[in-house]
């Protein structure tokens, strides 16, 4: 821990910190800030109601009234894209919250209690991790039914094993630390011990893991919505927008390209930020500061 | 109530304690049917070679054995009352560990650690700086207010060990288990920490179980000595008898090794 504290300032001032190397990070941060403000202030910045149908204006190109044109029902694309950030970011945040709510208690219990419980839980996680997350999510949606809530639940369930295993490994690593023993012989109860001495380390790992996963989850939400399993069709969501635009791919390709670009940039930004966060926070990555 | 009452003597009894490790279905006995009695106002030294089960005795009595190690038998009685191990920790028994460097959470200050102890001791308010300051001053941390805001990596091993002893005071527990409290420290700091511990026991009338394999420390501090070998207490006697009339071969070996090392001087 001492080493880490001492080495981080040295790392920051090395030749790695040149403007060119930081450019992707700066761009990613900009994208995230833009997305967040779009999601938060959508009703104020969106020029029109995203669901306002105007069949007279259908499939129009960019104009002063509709900066990015209109879709097949004459709805303003820019407004729909802006409102779409709400769905994407909101569902990802819900996914992560749900994942943490499942993974921290399960991983914590496995690491703390160990023995049969640990074996059982970890074999379950291993079993779930053998399926690609999308396949598992599709299977779960098949069982739960379609709809955004079920998509979020399915994504959370298909992703939580990775988090639970990480929580477990952090707990097992800390459990044998002298300061944890010291806290125990001081009489700290399990809850106290967990909150004071385990949660901060777990949180650091979770931030890294979650930020690397944000992009994947956005893709999952939009992908599943594209397939008609998630967000229902009138709602403004990037995946739904792409799906709706399929029939007009030759006449009005921008209908597909624009939400696709939104998705591309947000996923890239999330991944770049995740990488940067991992470089900073992950104790296992002390020397590997590279892009 | 932070200080234990000197006037009423209290006793802590460990009865029939067994500790064993389980490896692939095999049981390896680490402590076998061990009993000992610790009174307030005395320092009972638990000595023995490495691996004789000294630390496991402390951990077993407090119910903080490492994973894979269990304690199938054993009771702890305080003043004749049977108590669960977790009722001891931090309330009746405070612990001074051997490696101050790693015994503090690296991301918490000394004051945070003090609050943790005071919370368990139900001292209110837990975040009262005056009580913490007094305890820090008592263990010779002159600049108590500065020390409170320090993180473990900003301090020396000796200072950290003093804080650990201050935490033991803050807990208000009548008994201290000191598990090789000076092993990780250099000689001069060792001597000071030992003086501090013995002063504390005398002043506050604490009962201290001192785990060590350093017979110099034993000669300097202990009132009584219990010698362990292979998980059992093989000899228990006042400190003078241990050095001048050792009966068991294990005791003789420890004393002989010590005398050889220090060319005949006991302490």
TrEMBL record, chain A:
Membrane topology, from the record: Multi-pass membrane protein
Record-annotated membrane-spanning stretches: 25-46, 89-113, 134-159, 249-273
Domain ABC transmembrane type-1 residues, every copy: 85-274
InterPro entries: BP-dependent_transpt_permease (IPR050366), MetI-like (IPR000515), MetI-like_sf (IPR035906), OppC_N (IPR025966)
Subcellular location as annotated: Cell membrane
An example molecular function term from Gene Ontology annotations: dipeptide transmembrane transporter activity
Domain of life: Bacteria
Entry keywords, A to Z: Cell membrane, Membrane, Peptide transport, Protein transport, Transmembrane, Transmembrane helix, Transport
Major site of localization recorded for this protein: membrane
GO CC, alphabetical: plasma membrane
Any one Pfam family match given in the protein's UniProt record, by short name: BPD_transp_1
Statement: the UniProt record of this protein carries the keyword Protein transport: yes
CDD domains in the record: TM_PBP2
GO biological process entries: protein transport
Protein family (similarity comment): Belongs to the binding-protein-dependent transport system permease family.
Protein name: Nickel transport system permease protein
Organism: Rhizobium subbaraonis
Organism lineage: Bacteria, Pseudomonadati, Pseudomonadota, Alphaproteobacteria, Hyphomicrobiales
From TrEMBL, chain B:
Domain ABC transporter: 14-255
Chief place of localization: membrane
Gene Ontology cellular component terms for the protein in this record: plasma membrane
SUPFAM superfamilies assigned: P-loop containing nucleoside triphosphate hydrolases (SSF52540)
InterPro entries in UniProt: AAA+_ATPase (IPR003593), ABC_Ni/Peptide_Import (IPR050388), ABC_transporter-like_ATP-bd (IPR003439), ABC_transporter-like_CS (IPR017871), P-loop_NTPase (IPR027417)
Topology term for the membrane: Peripheral membrane protein
Keywords per UniProt: ATP-binding, Cell inner membrane, Cell membrane, Membrane, Nucleotide-binding, Translocase, Transport
UniProt family annotation: Belongs to the ABC transporter superfamily.
Protein name: Nickel transport system ATP-binding protein
Organism: Rhizobium subbaraonis
